[in-house]
């Protein structure tokens, strides 16, 4: 079958192997409870709620991969969506690559979604998929910034840092997930771009370094990342409102 007539199939990869130290000691971040249910389950449901997503790959901490498989089996998820759990790597980049390696050959596009963004609305997921299927090789949802941003010379924690510049706020966006990609393009980026240190934290940034155009679509205020204890408080409030008004 030629690429022109090849049907679209979209999968989602959820890297969930991080420890989430900023949330404090305890279980891996993705397994922290939100409204009595692990954040990872909320994130999987968010991806599986889109009828365009037929496969969700969860990249779990290697030591907890078996536990994550059991966890997914204990919670109600759409039957139409195939679920797969694979062990992650040392860095986020390694974990995303492990998820990509697990995808079957008929997948044409992929979403990369943070497990720590458990409340992204399905409309945002669908909008990202639609933009990729319309021909964009890389798509990110994002929001305009409310605060002025300063570029600084990093110093030691707690010490004053000299300001190097003030970017024009109108040109800046706070990027969210899921980020959507033509699968071949993202695989090319992971094969070509080696990032030192902790690895790449943003797959779209890797694609940019190939010289490929990344496009931004409107994000959603409820697609925020649960990173610190205060974020968890906000997420609980959003979830409570959804359950009260939408039967979520």
Automatic annotation (TrEMBL):
Record SUPFAM superfamilies: Nucleotide-diphospho-sugar transferases
The EC number(s) this enzyme carries: 2.7.7.60
Substrates-to-products reaction catalysed: 2-C-methyl-D-erythritol 4-phosphate + CTP + H(+) = 4-CDP-2-C-methyl-D-erythritol + diphosphate
Keywords for this protein: Isoprene biosynthesis, Nucleotidyltransferase, Transferase
InterPro entries: IspD, IspD/TarI, IspD/TarI_cytidylyltransf_bact, ISPD_synthase_CS, Nucleotide-diphossugar_trans
Alphabetized Gene3D superfamilies for the sequence: Spore Coat Polysaccharide Biosynthesis Protein SpsA, Chain A
Pathway in which this enzyme or protein is active: Isoprenoid biosynthesis; isopentenyl diphosphate biosynthesis via DXP pathway; isopentenyl diphosphate from 1-deoxy-D-xylulose 5-phosphate: step 2/6
Site positions for Positions MEP for the nucleophilic attack: 169, 225
Keyword Transferase in record: yes
Domain of life of the source: Bacteria
Alphabetical list of Pfam families matching this protein: IspD (PF01128)
MF (Gene Ontology): 2-C-methyl-D-erythritol 4-phosphate cytidylyltransferase activity
CDD domains membership: CDP-ME_synthetase
Site residues, Transition state stabilizer: 22, 29
Database matches in PANTHER family: 2-C-METHYL-D-ERYTHRITOL 4-PHOSPHATE CYTIDYLYLTRANSFERASE, CHLOROPLASTIC
HAMAP family per the UniProt record, alphabetical: IspD
Function comment: Catalyzes the formation of 4-diphosphocytidyl-2-C-methyl-D-erythritol from CTP and 2-C-methyl-D-erythritol 4-phosphate (MEP).
Family note: Belongs to the IspD/TarI cytidylyltransferase family. IspD subfamily.
Name of protein: 2-C-methyl-D-erythritol 4-phosphate cytidylyltransferase
Taxonomic placement: Bacteria, Bacillati, Actinomycetota, Actinomycetes, Kitasatosporales
């Amino acid at each position: 079958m030629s690429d022109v007539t090849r049907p679209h199939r979209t999968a989602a990869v959820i890297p969930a192997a991080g420890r989430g130290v900023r949330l404090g000691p305890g279980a891996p971040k993705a397994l922290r409870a939100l409204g009595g249910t692990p954040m990872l389950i909320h994130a999987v449901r968010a991806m599986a709620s889109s009828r365009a997503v037929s496969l969700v790959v969860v990249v779990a901490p290697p030591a907890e991969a078996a536990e994550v498989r059991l966890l997914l089996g204990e919670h109600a998820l759409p039957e139409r969506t195939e679920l797969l759990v694979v062990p992650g790597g040392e860095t986020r980049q390694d974990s995303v690559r492990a998820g990509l390696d697990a995808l079957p050959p008929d997948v044409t596009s992929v979403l990369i979604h943070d497990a720590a963004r458990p409340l992204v609305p399905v409309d945002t997921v669908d909008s990202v998929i639609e933009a990729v299927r319309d021909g964009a090789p890389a798509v990110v949802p994002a929001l305009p910034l409310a605060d002025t941003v300063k570029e600084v010379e990093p110093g030691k924690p707690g010490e004053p840092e000299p300001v190097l510049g003030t970017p024009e706020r109108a040109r800046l966006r706070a990027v969210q997930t899921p980020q959507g990609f033509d699968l071949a393009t993202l695989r090319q980026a992971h094969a070509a771009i080696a990032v030192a240190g902790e690895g790449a934290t943003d797959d779209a940034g890797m694609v940019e370094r190939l010289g490929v155009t990344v496009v931004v679509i409107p994000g959603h205020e409820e697609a925020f990342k649960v990173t610190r204890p205060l974020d968890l408080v906000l997420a609980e409030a959003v979830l409570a409102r959804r359950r009260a008004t939408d039967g979520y």
